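Notebook, bench 3.
Goal today: get a predicted structure for tRNA N6-adenosine threonylcarbamoyltransferase from Stenotrophomonas ginsengisoli so we can plan the truncation constructs. The sequence was checked against the plasmid map this morning, with no discrepancies at the termini. Length recorded as 342 residues. Pasting the sequence as submitted so the record is complete.
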Amino acid sequence: MKVLGIESSCDETGVAVYDTALNGPDALRAHAVYSQIALHAQYGGVVPELASRDHVRKTLPLIRQTLAEAGIGVDEIDAVAYTAGPGLVGALMVGAGVARSMAWALDVPAIGVHHMEGHLLAPLMDVDPPEPPFVALLVSGGHTQLVAVDRIGQYRLLGETLDDAAGEAFDKTAKLMGLPYPGGPQLAKLAENGTPGAFKFARPMTDRPGLDFSFSGLKTQVLLAWRASDQSEQTMADIARGFEDAVVETLAIKCGRALDEAGCDTLIVAGGVGANKRLRARLQEMAHKRGGRVCFPPPALCTDNGAMIAFAGALRLQAGQRNDNDAIAVTPRWDMATLPAV
């Protein structure tokens, strides 16, 4: 079954073709992502209306490009999966409208996919995917969650951020130090030249039990340190390193606790911050010491992409699930715990 996946939840248009007849990475026949970073940079953040309009412009050309790279015709598509939520309602409607229209025209099934389930399942596209039960760390600009995965589609929220998501904290911290949008990746790159220990910030909420996160106070600590410093290039790098170390160590501590609580030894990590090199190294170190395993998607599949939507949709379509209603509907706010099990 060849599944076309369409992702349009925010400011990236993603399209992919996933072929269930193949195994591992080979099953991903082709995928492409168009980012709107340049469009939104002048505003310092995503403008929903502009995001929707750009999805309108880019989705169909990206579908044509991806099908060509996969070497298949549109008539060879067996199903269409699309992001139905959560996300920006206008952006979601564009992807859903294209997907439902294609499915109707081709007379093939369509299925709406939960955006965060797509992220969660992305590491399972590997040659040797982990089997549930495991714990998932979903860490991005919009989410920081620890989820116990008892089986595909059966999720228990163990902990989440009470304020800023980790990726959001990266972006906001970068902005307060004058780095241009989107600042998170630039802050991480700057931290590579920072001196370890030059600035040591608190590891929020690690001195108490529980699996929730809070990064707002850490952001304030960085702001105070930055204002009191000489604001030189090296100091900026040192503060960036101190901030990154605090976030990474906080995530690692909470992941270890989550594994203990869930009684698992396997951790999967997904979402844009999952591409962070220092986070990957620290979690691999933690898993090694515990005699467990940590799995990541390739860095290109950490950010929003159509591959994760095609894969998640394929799993549910193979289980006999589909959206029979031809109405174009999306769910901007959607609790992943309400999803049916596969």
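DSSP finds ten helices and ten strands in the chain. The beta strands are 2-7, 12-19, 28-35, 79-85, 110-114, 134-139, 144-151, 154-160, 266-270, 293-295.
Flagging this for group meeting.
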